Amino acid sequence: MTDIMSLGLTSVRAYTQGLATISDNVANAQTPGYARRSVRIEDATVIRYSDEWRNNEARIASGLASQASTRLEWLDAAERSLDDSATGVGQLVGAVFNRAQELAADPNSTARRSAYLQSVDDAASAFRTTAEGLQDAANGIVGQAQQSVKTINTDLKGLLNVNQTLLATPQGTSGYASLLDQRDRLLSEVSQAMPVDISLDFNGVATVRVSGSGETLVNADTASQVGVSAATNGTLSFSVTAPDGSQSAFTPQGGTLAGLSSAATDIADKRSEVDALAAKFVDLINSTQAAGRKADGTAGGPLLALGAQGALTLSALDVSVDDIAAGDASSQNGNLLALDNARKSSGVESSWTALVADHAQKLSSAKLVKESTQSRSAAADEARDGLSGVDLDREAIELTRLQQSYQAAAQVIQVAREMMQSIMQIGG
Questions:
Q1: Which pLDDT does position 50 carry in this prediction?
Q2: HSE-up of 410 (CA within 13 Å, CB side)?
Q3: What is the DSSP letter of 304?
Q4: How far apart are CA 337 and CA 347, in angstroms?
Q5: Closest to 316 measured CA to CA, from 96, 91, 102, 103
């Protein structure tokens, strides 16, 4: 009789645990990182459905997708700065030469002289606007890199805490399964930011290293710190500082950090090209001025000034219409005609066109990479969720089965209790 009662009680406890587990599954069906559970009725052990190979593929694919989308985001920001419309550098530099041609047809026209000086000022402003936009993008990348590193370090501390708690938590319990969910969620977040190599021991404790270079980021005892620094031109450098204070540099080959690093380098290159183009434009305008003659016969002075920060500090000088050196030694418009010839050989306009076209090609390629990596990531997530994801229809069926089993176990207890009472009454 005691055995029947014990069997009933054990079954009720197991089915109660099973019902609670299904409740957790349903409640967390949309929770990122949650792995479906079931209960082994024989010993009420919680079974967590997870496959490390699928998890690892999902982490790698997510990192590549994050790298591609991050790079595209900032290349797109740079594209907006490289304005090729009527208010962009290319069109406004062309307008300078066009106004010079118009002035050459009537070199004594005050209105045309004013229009020429205004076009020079407009072109200088366009260079500054482009340089400022690229600088803002570079600063934005640095800011995101700093925030990403901060998040990585928070996740590494979280992993250290999970590792240490796992060692003190009995396996096969709901609490242990929840800790594994937390571990996998943190591992996914770190992997999305930077590629890592992960090894798991028997207790589920994760040791995480920088992929490729091998620096330890976290294990059962310690967590390191990831750092980032930015050069003057905005390019990024990354490092790992170990608990003992030693520091080593690494280059992320994937994840958000790699996307930021790549975009930072691309934008630094574009800033350098814009600065070089601005310098070429200034040299062309000012050297032409110096070679010409003003109406009073004196040599022309500069119309533009370029500071130490390149295109960011390009400006038109405050000069009067009389300071335009339109003529040369033999005519009133000879210098302006020489400027038109220099336009063709200077390559300022064609260089701008090439700069914009090169960036557009990189942007187009980045879009294709983003699409392909997102497809891979979606497929990897689907494969992982095929095992770990919660299917509400399946849970409903399992819920019905466990409810019936629970009722049967409860009935066993009821029958055993009634039999016990009957025996006691007979004995009395």
A1: 83
A2: 8
A3: E
A4: 17
A5: 96
Strands 247-250 and 236-241: antiparallel
Chunked into runs of 10 residues, the chain (428 residues) has average pLDDT values of 50 53 63 69 68 93 97 96 89 95 94 97 97 97 98 98 96 91 96 97 96 95 97 97 95 96 97 96 95 92 96 96 92 90 86 94 96 96 78 57 53 56 61
Tokens found for residue 154: 């928070």
Q: Report the DSSP pairing between strands 37-40 and 45-48.
A: antiparallel
- Pick the closest to residue 75 from 358, 266, 352 (CA basis): 266
Q: Are strands 225-230 and 236-241 parallel, antiparallel or unpaired?
A: antiparallel
**Residue 294 tokens, joined:** 């003003």
Instruction: With beta carbons less than 8 A apart as the criterion, state whether 378 and 64 touch.
Output: no
pLDDT of residue 1: 46
Which one, of 107, 126, 125, 123, lies nearest residue 321 by Cα? 107
Helices 52-81 and 348-388: crossing angle in degrees, nearest 10, is 160
pTM, 2 dp: 0.85
Q: Which of 245, 61, 255 is nearest to 144 (CA)?
A: 255
Phi/psi at 416 (5° precision)? -60, -40
Break the chain down into helix, strand, coil percent, rounded to 5. Answer: 65, 10, 20
If you write DSSP's letter for every residue of 64-126 in order, what string do you get? HHHHHHHHHHHHHHHHHHS--STTSHHHHHHHHHHHHHHHHHSTT-HHHHHHHHHHHHHHHHH
Rounded Cα gap, residues 217 and 224, in angstroms: 5
Nearest 5°: the CA angle 68, 73, 76 is 120
Q: How far, in Å, CA of 370 to CA of 79, rounded?
A: 17
Nearest-CA neighbor of 90 among 59, 65, 64, 122?
A: 122
Return d(Cα 297, Cα 287) in angstroms, integer: 17
What confidence score (pLDDT) does residue 396 get? Answer: 61
